[in-house]
From TrEMBL, chain A:
Keyword Cell membrane set for record: yes
Protein name, UniProt field: Amino acid ABC transporter ATP-binding protein, PAAT family
Main location: membrane
Membrane topology: Peripheral membrane protein
InterPro entries, sorted: AAA+_ATPase, ABC_ATPase_HisP-typ, ABC_transporter-like_ATP-bd, ABC_transporter-like_CS, MetN_ABC_transporter-like, P-loop_NTPase
UniProtKB/TrEMBL annotation, chain B:
Localization (cell): Cell membrane
UniProt protein name: Amino acid ABC transporter membrane protein 2, PAAT family
GO biological process terms on file: amino acid transport
Keywords: Amino-acid transport, Cell membrane, Membrane, Transmembrane, Transmembrane helix, Transport
Database matches in PANTHER family: L-CYSTINE TRANSPORT SYSTEM PERMEASE PROTEIN TCYL, MEMBRANE COMPONENT OF AMINO ACID ABC TRANSPORTER
PROSITE patterns in alphabetical order: ABC_TM1
Topology within the bilayer: Multi-pass membrane protein
Amino acid sequence: MSDPLLRVEDLHKSYGDETVLRGIDFELERGDVEILSGPSGSGKSTLLRCVNRLTEPDSGTIYLDGERVSGAGTDVNELRRQVGMVFQDFNLFLHLTAAENITLGLRRVKGLGKAEARERAMEHLDRVGLADQAGSYPAELSGGQKQRVGIARALAMDPKLMLFDEPTSALDPELVGEVTSVMRELADEGMTMLVVTHEMGFAREAASRMMFLDQGQIVERGPPEQLFQHPEQARTAEFLQRITQLHGGEST
Amino acid sequence: MSYAEDLRRVRTREGRSVGSMVLIALGGLFWGYLLLRWLINWEWVPFGTPGEPLVSPETLGLTGGTATAFQSLPQLAEGAYITVLITVLSILLGLVLAVPLSVARVYGRWTKYLSLSFTELIRGTPLIAQLYLLYYGLNLSQFFRGLTQFGPFTVRTPVWAVDLGPLKVQTALWVALIGFTINSAAYQAEYIRSAIESVDPQQLVAARSVGLTQREGILHVVLPQTLRFAIPGWTNELVYLIKYSSLATFITVAELFRRADAVASDTFDYTAMFTVVALVYIGIVITATRLMGYVEDRVALPGLGQTRGRS
Ligand SMILES: Nc1ncnc2c1ncn2[C@@H]1O[C@H](COP(=O)(O)OP(=O)(O)OP(=O)(O)O)[C@@H](O)[C@H]1O
Ligand SMILES: [Mg+2]
């Protein structure tokens, strides 16, 4: 198949009078790791949420793996099954243990039996280095551990695409590394990822491309080194410089 | 699992004070006596006479109000049975109604308004008026007695509703159960609604993001958290219900308060009778709050649903 994994066409979204996304077009190839960057309020989270339709776009079309997944006659739950999402505030199910956070989707959505779901959950916890925390509740985990469970929960559903919305922004600086290293492994394994992050170290090392969003539009897009070193737009240059000062360009 | 056990172990070690031992002993006596009287009343034990004390007050040298109260204890025990029955069944059936009502209220589109209207109607009118409407207005107890004429319709009552077998309850009790269930459903729906609203909305978003439907998300993620938040409010409602079940006396249900009232107006020993009946209510209420505290501990999870201190 030559279709891109994800194609977003002319996406628009407003909240009341406020236009948040004004005509977003882009494609992601299989295995792409794309960083989505831009100032606060530029619409990054809204764009991610539109991709798996946690927010319904006003207009525009989304194709996943060559199939239209937005608009009339499409099954939103089917789309979400194929797209994993990782949240800034983890959003683990508070009443469930780390393992149960993962088995819930496997059982209800994938229809796995109890034992099989449990086994799969353990594999995924192991993959993020948390097999020994399977029985812990979210309140008993550190931020970094919570986020790794969040990643495992999304991965367990076998998504074609993973969305990350500032996965490390709520973490203490010393915990950022454990999450970005899991993400980097994932990128190495060929997962297609769309990542909103200010971790420029991760962007430089793991990203294949980077897009810069401002006021609901993609202002500039290209390989990370190009955006860092020869940005075409003054806005991009200024923003990336500020972000790099804040969040460090050196590797983590 | 291990957490609930830990919590309980900590609690019980702290809680094994003389005071709580005394309370447990009193509770044992209280419920032991009630149970004994219920068994005698149903003639499930080969001794005792329904309604008669095992030892007469004269033998114990009791006189006046104390004697009257002692003599009436078996009847109060029978009344307590009805009170407990009304309370337990109404709170549970009410809960079954309250969960969908509150879910509709928070997530429903048009069902939201149905739920809101129901809740406001019930909470906005006196309970006694609701009971009178059911009992005198709709004449529901006729229905529970057998064939009933409802306007042009003749309704045949199912046999199980007429005859409760060994429990020998009045048909009016059914009316009370319906009334209290409806009433309690409305109040519980409010408690549960506010508990639903205290669950982080992002929990449902996360559920949707793994592909669960809205319905599944509510069922498996929102409600399990909600019910933990709802327990304190629910306990409150239970305590109220125990006491306002006494309004059933006005539709002739022979519950606890009515028994005491009947004896008091026969003997004029008002002080003794209403003091004793108050103690019986207190016994039931304290048991209920203790049980709910236990339930709360049992279902508590780290970071969720503990309202009482954990050191
Ligand atoms: N549910 C909503 N209702 C109304 N307005 C919203 C909603 N979600 C987002 N917005 C608005 O849309 C704009 C873009 O928000 P969005 O969260 O997408 O920005 P962002 O780029 O992710 O910013 P940040 O870096 O702060 O997370 C903001 O002005 C925000 O106030
Ligand atoms: Mg955001």
